[in-house]
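Render this sequence as a predicted structure.
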Amino acid sequence: MTITGPEALTLSLMIFTFFMGCFAFAMWQIRKQKRAKRLGK
C-alpha cells in the first residue's frame, strides 16, 4: 500500500512533527534532570 499525493505529504509532516516533539520533550527532561542534580549537591 503506497500513498501518493497530498496525503503522503500530510502523513510525513505529521510523523516529522511527532518525532520532533518527542525529541524536544526528551531534551527538556534531560536538562531538567541535570539542573536537579546540580541543585542537589
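Summary. The helical segments are 6-40. The longest helix spans residues 6-40.
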